[in-house]
Specification:
Length: about 210
């Protein structure tokens, strides 16, 4: 059975997955690079990085994934819809290497990139988007790549089987929060926490089997 998974979603202690305002110069707003400092030190990010706890979690991002779904604000800064040349933040060879579905109310034709990534633009409900991505994933799992809004919407719709969050010891105070509207989420998931020497806490939410 193909699973729906979230990986490496970094949040502040107060639950923000991004700061504000987002712009071309500041993709994470006032959070800057602080949410992902833990990842930059890993072998997953950089061949010279560490192979410790953070790396072990980070590597799972790419394992067994056949498609990604992301939100419009992960794909580009405000205004990208009006720029026909915008092809995402990641250069000619984005790090997805699978069909990648961008949810937007202003879809455009697909963009085929190097390395196996093709961006498809979809105006669809989470359940509809997941059905399309699952078909494309060819039996592998589907990753919900963020940002916060998309992850929240897929969790709220009951579509996420496994969620890996990384709680970073900073307080952002503003931005887009992951938790809003997800009251009692813990009732549906087994939750584990692992503290890493880097100071972050890896949280895994594994959906409980229904009787
Ligand atoms: N902390 C992390 O690990 C992490 C990971 C990934 C991204 N991020 C950051 O998170 C931020 C983006 O998150 P976000 O919460 O602002 O936005 P987001 O989840 O990326 O995208 C939300 C947008 O997607 C479109 N959308 C959502 N649901 C849709 C649906 N069902 N059908 C059609 N379109 C739909 C809408 O934009 P339209 O206007 O296009 O319709 C909506 O405003 C960025 O700053 C990114 O860098 C953080």
């Amino acid at each position: 059975m193909s699973l729906t998974r979230v990986h490496n979603l970094s949040i502040s202690l107060d639950g923000f997955a991004t700061g504000e305002p987002q712009s071309l110069e500041a993709p994470f707003g006032h959070a800057g690079e602080r949410l992902h400092g833990w990842m930059f030190g890993t072998r997953f990010w950089d061949a010279g990085g560490s192979a410790g706890v953070d790396d072990a979690f980070a590597q799972r991002h790419s394992q067994g994934i056949g498609a990604e779904i992301m939100g419009s604000h992960k794909f580009g800064p405000p205004g990208w819809h009006d720029d026909p040349e915008w092809r995402g933040w990641w250069g000619p060879n984005p790090p997805f290497h699978t069909p990648t579905y961008v949810l937007t109310h202003r879809p455009r034709p697909p963009l085929e990139m190097a390395g196996g990534t093709t961006f498809h633009f979809l105006d669809a409900t989470p359940a509809e988007a997941l059905a399309v991505a699952r078909e494309a994933a060819g039996g592998q799992d589907v990753r919900i790549g963020g940002g916060a809004t998309i992850v929240r919407d897929f969790v709220a719709a009951g579509l996420v089987d496994l969620m890996h969050l990384v709680q970073v010891p900073i307080v952002l105070g503003r931005g887009v929060r992951i938790w809003d509207g997800l009251e009692a989420l813990e009732d549906g998931y087994d939750i584990e926490a692992v503290s890493a020497p880097s100071g972050v806490t890896h949280l895994t939410f594994t959906r409980r089997a229904t009787a």
